[in-house]
Every structure is written in C-alpha cells, then in structure tokens.
Amino acid sequence: MAEPTSYRMCSMILRPSFGSSGRLSRDLSRSILLLVYALQVLTSTSLAALPKRLILALDGISYRDMQALQEGVTYQNLKGKQFHRQAFHQGYFPVSRNVSTFPSTSDVAWTDIFGDRPLPGYQRTYFSIAVNTEIVVNGITTSMEHERQMTWQVESGFLRALGYVFPRSTFKYEVHELIKSFLNTKNGGDNYYAYVRSTDDAQHLSADILAMLCMLDEKLQELRARYKALEGKDLEILILSDHGNNHAGPAKRVPVRTFLQKAGYRITKSIRDPKDVVLPTAGIESWVEIHNSPSETERLAQLLTHLEGVDVLTARVPGEANRFLVLNAKGERASIEWNSAKNSYRYSAETGDPINYRPVVEALSRKNQLDAEGFATADAWMAATLDHRYPLAPERIVRGHTRVTLNPATILISLDNRYAHASWLIKKGSEFVRFGGTHGGLDDLNSNGILLSSVAPTQDTSTGRVAALFEGFKGLREPHAEENGAEWVSGKAQALTSIARAPVDSGCGMLPSDGVCLRIWAPSFAHLGSDVPVELTVEKAGRFLPAQIRRGEPNTVDASTKHLTLSLPLALPGACSYERVYALPPGLILKPQEAYWISGRLRDQKEDTRIFKFAFRTDSRGLPAAY
Fold first, then answer.
1. C-alpha distances in Å from residue 396, one per residue of 102, 108, 314, 381, 443
2. Of 152, 178, 443, 592, which has the fewest beta carbons less than 10 angstroms from its beta carbon?
3. Is the peptide bond before 103 cis (omega within 30 degrees of 0)?
4. Nearest CA to 65 among 54, 75, 56, 55?
C-alpha cells in the first residue's frame, strides 16, 4: 500500500525551526502533517481499494470432505500416520452441496456454474455431430471460456502440466500467487474471481486433500486479517467447486473397446455405418460417452448393461426428443420423460428400479407434488433427492443428453467406482503413481461439490442454479474486450447460454438457427467506425488437422485461396464497441466435410493488421460448422 511513501513525503516537507517562530512553525508543521497524511490516506484508499469479495473456484472439492473438515476429522494418511484436522470452521457458515452436471466433469460443470454457452463436448476431445468426426484439442494448453473469465488463473500450459506431477507444490504456488494478485489489484470492484486447478490434480494422485485445505484456510485467514487492517472491513469469501471425487483408489480399466469389438462394432472417428461407434476418451474417468447410429441405440444400450464395470446407463430414445432410458447392470429398466415447457419430469420404473427412485416418486405423491400426469418440477425432484445416492437424477440425465454440451452423446455410462475409463496408455501411465480416484459418474460421491460462504448461510443447490443465488456472478472478466479473436456462432447454440452477457447472447434470436455467423472481437474496433471493413482469407488446411491444431498452424495445401470482404455487421441489441457479428458471406462456397483456415485483417488508412486466424471444418452442406 501507499503508507511508506506517505511518510517519506512528509519528512521532506517538515524542517526544524527555533524560537517563538519555531513554535509557530512546529504548530503549522503539525497541521500540514495531519492534512497531508489525511489526504494521502484518502487518496490511497480511493485509488487502491481492494475488491469487496473473493470468489474462489476450487476444482474437484467434495462436499463430504469439506463437511468432515468443518466438523473435525481423524484419519490416517497413506503412510499410516494419524492426523486430526479441522478447518473452515471459524468465520464460515456450514458448507452446502453444489450438485454437478452429468457427467460430473470440470469443463461442463464450470460452464454451467457461470452460465456460459455450452461447450462443443463434455471434454476437449469430443465428437462433432455436424462434422461427423472426432475432434482433439489439447486440454493443457487451451482455455475454455470459464477459465478466461477469471480475474486470476494459471495461464501457463507448463505450470498447468506440473499440477499432474507435483500437485502439492503447484497448489502452494497457486494459492500464493492468487493472494498476491488479489492484494495488488488496482481496479477494485465488487468481485475478484480466482480459479485453482491443482486441487483436482492432487486428488487424482492421492495427495492429502484435507491437509491442503487446512493450508488454504490458514492462508485465507491471514489474507482476511491483512484485508481488515488495510480496508477497515471484513473480506467476503465465497468458495465453490464443480464436482466431487470418489476417492476410490486404483481402479480397474473398463474393457469397453474390446467389449464392443467382440459384439461386432467398430471403434472409429466418424459414423458412416450402423456398426460404427465413436468413443471420445480423455484422462481417467468414471463415465463413458458413446456416439452411435440411432438405429443401434436400443440394442447397444441393452448390450452394454453386460459390460463389466457398468453402474447406470442412460440413453435418449431415438425419435422421441423428450424420452430417455435408464438401465443398470442388473438389467433393470426405467424411463424419464421431460416436459420442456414446464421443466418437469416423470420417472417410470418399468422392470425393477435401476436407480431406486420409486420411493422418491411415492414421497412426491404423498406431498401432492406430482401433477395429474405424474410429472414433478425440477425443484421438487431436487428437494426430494439431495441426499439420494443419485441426486437430481431425472434433471441431470436429461440435461446431460440435451444441453450441457452442443454435441451430446447417444449413450452415457456411469461406472461402478471400482472401475475407470481411460486409454490404454494413460491407464498404464497412472500405474507408476498412486492413483487416488476420479469423477464423472452420476452418484453423489462423484457429483457433490461445495458452496461455502463467510458472509451468510448458503443452501444446497446445483451447478445450473447457483449463479441465481449470487446475482449471476457479476464482474467476471470479459476476455473479448482485451484480445483479438473470432468464431463461428449459431442462433441455436447461443440460445442455450444461461446468462446473457454479450450482444450475441441477448440478440441470439437474430442469428440463423440452422446456419452460422462470424463473431469477431478486437479492442481496435473501439477506435474504428463500423464501416471499416474486415478482409477475410479462407484457405484449405492440411490433411491431419486435429494433430496440427495441437502443434501449431499447418501449411496449407490448396492454392485456391478465397478472399472476401465484410463491410456491414449485424445490428444486435446492446452492441459493444469491441465486438462485431457478420452474416455468412454469400460468396463463401466450400467443399463438404473439409478442413479450412480462416483469417481476418483490418485495413484502414494507417495500418494493415491481422486480428484472427482459426481452423474450422465444414458440414455435409459445405457450410462452416460452428461446433
């Protein structure tokens, strides 16, 4: 802060004096001292006031761990040494559940929490329905929208990778740096958002998460004391996480690939035959996503209940947009029907009761919370199932197949916690370390994250509801205001954005539902008129685009480069100075199912600047595929 500078300034102003005039000088000097000091304090406070609230996003912290830690817990670590630990019990209210998405994975859950547009896939390796191919994106070197919205996060891909090798050291670094950054904040404001990844990494590698949380509590207590000394008031802290962790230890790899191949299916990158199956895989997970021909869904679903390691299997019924199957390893079967207009659900046990929800239905009936057709609202289901093994299952299953991603799977499998899904190489690599557990499944161990406040009591909620409890998480960083970039967008996808923060969100009704527009952002737009054109270059990309996306820009192989000019952006409501949205140029005619690069330049009287370049693929119509 500014106090040391203030005192140095005062010593330069005051000088010794003698006699009666000296007494007058001393009195005057004291007055000047008090005045200057007051001005310095007021100025430093007004210019360098710290944020009112720290919102800390901790990846992968389980409700059961935080609850035990608040109450005090005695346990043995991996070496057999016994500890008694307690934390977050002083200055915090009791922790609440924050029930995750299904699958309970980081990217989709954080996106749900902050109300952003759903991501292309559940993970960064995903199947694009429009392009009909598997897309691979590096999960360490890339950042999703929710990460870029943080005031502070580790941006270095190298440092992120260290979290998988030295999670405890990386955690200490993250905590130190976020506190340092918070105390050096210049712009004040209400909310300061910080994202810590290594808490999730640590649990995958059997680190002592309770010890790490105790250290975090200690550092936050120090921060709160320093904040009060500087600001004269208490720092408000809100801590939340995206999912839990099953803490199941080393898991057996589920043999899904071999199982499907023996049943006559082919594991491929695209679906061109009824027997083709796409199986995107990244990391070590307690769930499986399967993309297949709709004609095979019923047969595959029944077949996969016999796969070793299956706990619960869900699928969208082909030809019925609002009906979903639920099966388990015993062959029990139920259906979930969704009234999208009322956001209500009906659970019907058909053969047995695969997720033990018949007692829940009976309880809702006794409370008169079922309508004449047997549907109950999403909130009624939530209240009735928060402490169930499968919390909020009807809502989470439906959302998992409809809106938590833009390319939902045909079949989702929640695994028994003794099993995990991973590529052979990653699973073998995990055997060289002590594996602690994972997440992604439908059950409470995988799904229950946390919501913890120092300000007021919290309530059990879900990732899709929590923003409404905190005014929509105002003050998130707007990355588009600070960087150049572009993307293809569609009205259908933007309409799934829960919290409209940009003109393209509030004006999604003006975008084509079945087509795309080009969204461009650049700080330089703020200094240029909307009549300054953007010049496009579109060129065919190399053959192996997914790998080249990971490694850098590929060499183009097609000489027929296209040049187009964008001159008139769409007039969206609430348009901002740094962003423009353009209709698809009519002259952009491309080959179906091909990979291209598109780049854009701003050319005014002073300079010629490239503002973006990105890769994309075309769909079966030859149109750019946004997702």
1. 6, 12, 11, 11, 11
2. 592
3. yes
4. 75
What are the strands, taking DSSP E only, across 169-309?
191-196, 236-241, 252-253, 266-268, 276-278, 287-292
Name the nearest CA neighbour of 601 among 534, 513, 508, 517: 534
Q: SS3 string of 563-600? A: EEEECCCCCCCCCCCCEEEEECCCCCCCCCCCEEEEEE
Sequence-separated (6 or more) residues with CB below 8 Å from residue 412:
102, 103, 287, 288, 289, 290, 313, 314, 315, 397, 400, 401
What is the identity of the amino acid at 479?
A: P
CA–CA separation, 165 vs 123, rounded Å?
21
Report how far residue 414's alpha carbon sits from residue 417's, in angstroms, rounded to the nearest whole number. Answer: 9
| Nearest of 310, 266, 524 to residue 411 by alpha carbon | 310
> In 10 A of CB 355, how many CB atoms?
27
Residue listed under structure tokens 């207590």: 221
8 A C-beta contact, residue 420 and residue 439: no
Q: Which two tokens mark 499?
A: 């919290």
Do 460 and 96 contact (CB within 8 A), yes or no?
yes
Q: Which residue has the tokens 């016994």?
A: 82
Distance, in Å, from the CA atom of 7 to the CA atom of 219, rounded to the nearest integer, reads 29
Structure tokens belonging to residue 256: 């899904």
Rg (CA), the chain: 28
| CA–CA gap between residue 5 and residue 363 (Å, rounded) | 67
Tokens 């004269």 identify what position? 232
* 3-state SS, residue 334: strand
Report residue 21 CA to chain centroid gap: 69
Q: How far apart are CA 27 and CA 33, in angstroms?
A: 10
Are 585 and 591 in contact by the 8 Å Cβ rule? The answer is: no
Spatial distance between the Cα atoms of 243 and 56, rounded to a whole number of angstroms? 14
Pairing state between β 276-278 and 266-268: parallel
Residues of the chain with pLDDT under 70: 1-48, 424-434, 543-559, 604-606
Locate all alpha helices (DSSP H) within 275-346, ordered by sequence.
297-304
pLDDT at site 586? 85
Cα–Cα nearest to 540, from 617, 610, 486: 617
Instruction: Report the alpha-carbon distance of residue 143 to residue 156 in Å, rounded.
Output: 10
Block residue for tokens 């390893």: 329
Residue bearing tokens 């105390």? 183
Does an H or E element contain 259, and which? Answer: helix 256-262
CB 263 within 8 A of CB 377: no
pLDDT of 431: 55
Q: How many CA atoms lie within 13 A of 395 on its CB side?
A: 24
Q: What is the H or E stretch that residue 413 is in?
A: strand 411-415
In angstroms, rounded to a whole number, what is the distance separating the alpha carbons of residues 305 and 328? 6
Cβ neighbours of residue 402 under 8 Å, at least 6 residues apart?
316, 338, 408
**Amino acid in the structure at residue 359:** P
Query: Rounded to 5 degrees, what angle do the CA atoms 26, 27, 33 make?
Result: 85
From first CA to last CA, the distance across the chain in angstroms is: 47
Instruction: Identify the CA nearest to 551 among candidates 615, 466, 468, 471.
Output: 615
Are the C-beta atoms of 556 and 597 separated by less than 8 Å? yes
Strand, coil or helix: what is 20?
helix
The bridge status of strand 376-377 relative to strand 191-196 is unpaired
- Bridge partners (DSSP) of residue 11 are none
Strands 534-540 and 562-566 come out as antiparallel
